[in-house]
Amino acid sequence: MNAPAATPNPSLATSNPSITNPAAARAGIGAIIATVALALIALLSFSGATQPTPADKVTLLALAVLAMLCFWTPLYAWCEAQEGAFAFGLTAAMFIIYGLARHAGPASGPEFHLPFDPDDAITLSYASIIVMAGALITAPFWWRNLGGWARAVWSAIATLAVLAFGVFTLLKGHYPVGATEIVDPAPLVYLVAQLVEYGALALLCSVVCAHASTRRLVLRALPIALLLLWARHEFAAAPVADAK
Amino acid sequence: MATTIEPNLTTPTPSQPRRKLEWNAATFDSLLLIALILTMCSQMNMRSIGKDTYLEGGYVTKQLFIALSDVILCLTFVWFVIRTTMLKAWQRVWWPPVPCWALIVAMLIAMLHSPHVTEALKGAHHAGPKALLKAMGGQEGKEAIAHIVQFVLYFIVAITLFVNLIHDRREGEIIVRRRLALHVFPVAILLATLLGCWQLLVSKHDPPHGLFGSSNVYSGFLALALPLLITHMIKEWRAVPQVFFTGALSLLLALATLSSPWAVLALLIGIAVGGLLLRQPARTNILLVASVVVSAVVWAGAVKLAGDDPAFKALGANAVKDPTHIHHPTKLVRADSLRLVGDSSHSPGDENENEKDATAFKIKKQFIEWYAALGFAMPRERAVATGVGPGNYQLNIGTYYGSLPNVKKILPDSNNLYLVQAVSLGLLGLGALLWVLGHFAHRAWLARRWHSSDWLGTGVLASLVSFGFVNIFHALIVRGVGLVLAFILALAVIAAQGENNKDLATHEHQ
Fold first, then answer.
1. Which pTM value belongs to this model?
2. Do B434 and A58 lie within an 8 Å CB cutoff?
3. Enclosing H/E stretch for B47
4. Segment A36-67, tens digit of pLDDT
5. ipTM of the prediction
6. Which of B400, B425, B429, B427 is nearest to B117 (CA)?
7. Would you call A176 an interface residue with chain B, using a CB distance cutoff of 8 Å?
8. Which residue of B343, B434, B440 to mutate against A (max A Cβ within 10 Å)?
């Protein structure tokens, strides 16, 4: 069967170990940093404080099976030829894992407020600190090498941000704004915070997938991580920690 | 090197049996392609699956409607599978790119990660397969499955069929049906606008809607389809006069029958983008921009005049007990569509205590719902990443209103597509959707670069820009317009592959 019309994966150019390429070496450093960040996030997701829902567990198991099919079979070669396939797959899995990890604490930690909503605080979890620090540190590696998938995620973020702030601006001109008023700014606050976190996570995933070695390592290990995570929360659920 | 053949429905069949079979198959392909293009510009439902529970029990559950275009699509798909197997041509089939598959995977993840859908399954999985099926037949499950099936039909099946039927690659030859498709599509648009014009003259109460379910979908369809037609008209009006005639007449009828000023604005933006990207002489570009600006000013003026209509003003002030006395419903709907503030929906309907609240009508409900949709970001929802589940927007949006005024329903098909997809599929799904649109827009852009004398890539870009804008005000990936979108996306691939397919292999790997 002919491969579908595909834009060649530019990251394949970095897979030849015989090429001495300073740019490839630097990319490798960035990929390692991003891999470490993702690994820390995955570790946090094992915490009992994450309080996974039944939907989380079902999704972890399903993703583990899907990851085995895509990354442990000859399908891996097909995915490697398609630009963005690996970045999307890793991002999808990490979105679920991060959704758990960001509830792992701390119970009370650093928080800040946005100017338009002094009542609702954005609390920085361990996971959010790791993901944003990781994205900042690896900025030189993704800044000029964003693939189609990462661009699409950030286009979605920009679209939502413009729509959210635009409609908030329209409403606040006609209705009172406040935690107990008609227009509650809390959704806007939480939306902005989470969009930045998930956007940073997508960038880390794209950096990992841009380098052949880290890509292979992470994607081959991903099904195991997902299975372990599922088993951890399905069979060995720890007493739920008090969020406060 | 493959031979390129234009289909000719009247060509005598060759004498050899296999060639005769292949030629008959090609003829049937052409007929099905024509039927598919004609029926995709409509929303004619043939039957429904599921009970109309609103009439029986007063509650709403998903009813699946099977449209004529769905039947033709399925028939074409089954035929395509049979004939490709008979011709042993699977190796030459074009398949959708990764973004399309990623969108479906994102929807599946969103369905599994939806607490509402999974909650229904939680109690059922111990009880066995029958209980599982019953749980999936609940409201949330039905909505999710229906949406996933729709998106698979649009973004996988339909695109595959359109590309492979228009550039039909077989052993030693390629049958090109580009001209056929691009002649039938304008005819379908013209028929839709003629019908809309007839409805405008005949109907006293409803704005024109063609063969679609609502005037908003009809408007969105024209905003998506017409920029392609107009781009073709600008490029080849001298060489092919019938293109000019069809395009000009369709545009005039569309402007007369469109009830959504947002769709009109999207259409004008699309035409401007198409015209400017065509690399016409400076004088033509100036004329084009001037025409668009004048059209926009005239249109805005007409809407302003309609807004001053005394009958329309009365709608905002008093409850209208008998809407049959309202004249010119189309221009009133247009004027109402442009308003950001106030609401004309003081109309008879279910009693709602909030109707007495004056603050409820300060901002149009359509825009209040935009802010309400942001409620999916609240920590208790855990829905930013993957949403509340495909098709579950309507089931959840009510709970997000909080203190926001929630009086009356918004008009059909006037949601914001990006917010609906964000709430339903989360950032993962919205990103995948934009990835699909961006991928095909990029293909159209490359087509414009590789084949500078060809207008098709530019036309697709114009349509996609218009589509991107109009979806802010009308969520259009619904029954009736989804197939048209698939057709436009397929044309991006056709444009990139080149008019004569000579450099097909070269461009696929650039």
1. 0.88
2. no
3. strand B45-49
4. 999 999 999 998 888 888 889 989 999 999 99
5. 0.89
6. B425
7. no
8. B434
